Amino acid sequence: MADEKKMTEQESLDLITNMIRKAKGSYHETGIGSLLWGTVVAIASFLTYFQRTYDFNIGFDIWLIVLAAIIPQIVISVREKRSTQVKKYEDDALNTVWLVFGISIFGLNFYQSIVPGVTADIIQQEGWQMTKNYLDGSKPDEILKPFPPSFYSLFILLYAFPTLVTGIVKQFKPMLFGAIIAYGLFICSCFTRSEYDWLLGGAAAIICWFIPGIILRRKYLAQQRKHV
Amino acid sequence: MFKELDPILHSQLRLAVVSLLIGVKEAEFTFIREKTNATAGNLSVQVQKLKDAGYIEVTKQFKDNYPQTTCKITPKGIEAFEAYVQALQQYLKVGG
Lengths: 228, 96
What we know:
Oligomer: heterodimer
Largest sheet of chain A: 2 strands, antiparallel
Strand order of the largest sheet of chain B: 1-3-2
Number of strands of chain B: 3
Helix content of chain A: over 70%
Number of strands of chain A: 3
Structural class of chain B: alpha+beta
Strand order of the largest sheet of chain A: 2-3
Order of helices and strands of chain B: HEHHEEH
Structural class of chain A: mainly alpha
CATH class of chain B: Mainly Alpha
Radius of gyration of chain B: 14 Å
Helix content of chain B: 55-70%
Number of helices of chain B: 4
Shape of chain A: elongated
CATH architecture of chain B: Orthogonal Bundle
Distance between the termini of chain A: 21 Å
Largest interface: A-B, 27 and 34 residues
């Protein structure tokens, strides 16, 4: 591009439009982060469903793999930051949305592990307890520990939130549709038995992150090939 | 009375650089070179002119042992770009 070439007003306007378009469509994420989270959350959700449905135990909490995935995510984030040639205004906002999402997920896990025990202590101090009473009298009453019913539904609801924000801001339809479907899965999960929530949650992880991750990865690799 | 087009911006390469930077928070020199198809030498000269005018901020640092130059538009640059586009629109309205 020549530096001092005389331009007409129309040429100037066309150049501005062209450059703004180039900046807008220039950057594709690697997709590895989406693939990673789509995979671990789907595996953990499906395995939890199978453990509950077929009554077996793999010997450790499968959700620890979600915790472990934070380490590769940090490595991915650092590498992506290093290789990024351009930083957009929305990047910081979206990173914050995903950070808040991560904190909220851990907040929900904390709630789930603390509240039933605390509630049990409180109601014991008040001198009552929760029991399971079979209406037909076929089995004796069972004492129940308080539990939030169909709790994984809330996770599905939460999976949709950052996905929808990213889909709208980045105008990335796979995530936009993924989030809308996840909201549909959340509604379904409110009407199904709690073990099916895990199946629906696994499906949400695949639709929200794994499939968009494959699409992002393909776009990124295609862009890389163009540069070679 | 027509506003005079800003001579700093009314140059193909400098206008291209500012138009790229207006839509992003910051961009590396290599990114700008790739998008404008300019030579490194020519781009360096134009980037320096924009920097001298106070339209862009240039940060030089080392990344993985390689020098890295990052450019960012300044509030003065945004103001100048907006004024330039307004002046262009004025010319085009009369011309059209």
